[in-house]
Amino acid sequence: MSESSQPAAPASKYCRESRVFKTGRVFPNDINNHQTLFGGKLMSNIDEVASISAMRHCRCSVVTASTDSVDFLSPIRPTDSFCFESFVSWTGRTSIEVFVKVIAENLYSGERTVAATSFLTFVAIGPDGKPAPVPGVIPETDEEKLVSDLAEERSEQRKVRRAASKKLAGQLITTKYWE
């Protein structure tokens, strides 16, 4: 398909249209040997809510292209609940950046803290199985604008990191170590 015959991107949408909330509680099978929430459990939930935000934004299938960062800022303990909040913070032609904020709340004191933040990138997939154009995004609140302000810079960093990862992967061996 030539550049001129590619479908046009749909009209832009507001960040709020992709916003997702999910609240959970820490149970005994969710904790590690430090008596805090397993990082992998948190990461799984982050990917889940982010994928919902991405699909709400483009209204088609998406695939996770990268987890750009997961910054664990404070531990989440068995006395806490945790609330995930995600929204689309930037889009490219077919890519969607989603911001996820995780707030821990001590269920006894009511104290709340940002426990983690994350940026993930998804690619929209059309019915033909190929990347599909996505709507632009319009931030409205101060927080949305703050998160969106550096999105172009993060996009460039992703491109550099991906190129370096591909270069490294091309130099790695794939044989079994015992062969």
Task: Summarize the topology.
Layout: E1 13-14, E2 20-25, H1 39-58, E3 61-72, E4 80-91, E5 95-106, E6 112-125, E7 137-138, H2 142-149, H3 151-171
Parallel strand pairs: 1-7
Antiparallel strand pairs: 2-4, 3-6, 4-5, 5-6
3D architecture notes:
The chain is an alpha+beta fold. The protein is 27% helix and 34% strand. The protein contains three helices and seven strands; from the N terminus they run ββαβββββαα. The strands form two sheets. A five-stranded antiparallel β-sheet has the order 2-4-5-6-3. Strands 1-7 form a two-stranded parallel ribbon. A hairpin with a 3-residue loop joins strand 4 and strand 5. It is globular. It starts with 12 loop residues before the first strand and ends in an 8-residue tail after the last helix. The mean pLDDT is 93.
- Helical content band: 25-40%
N→C terminal distance: 44 Å
Structure annotation, total helices = 3
Kindly name the structural category.
alpha+beta
Can you count the beta strands?
7
Overall pLDDT score: 93
One letter per element, helices H and strands E, the order comes to EEHEEEEEHH
Radius of gyration, in Å, reads 19 Å
Major beta sheet summary:
5 strands, antiparallel
Shape: globular
* Poorly predicted runs of 5 or more residues: none
Percent in strands: 25-35%
Instruction: Describe the strand arrangement of the main beta sheet, using strand numbers.
Output: 2-4-5-6-3
In short:
Belongs to the acyl coenzyme A hydrolase family. The chain is α+β, with helices and mostly antiparallel strands and 179 residues long. 27% of the residues lie in helices and 34% in strands.
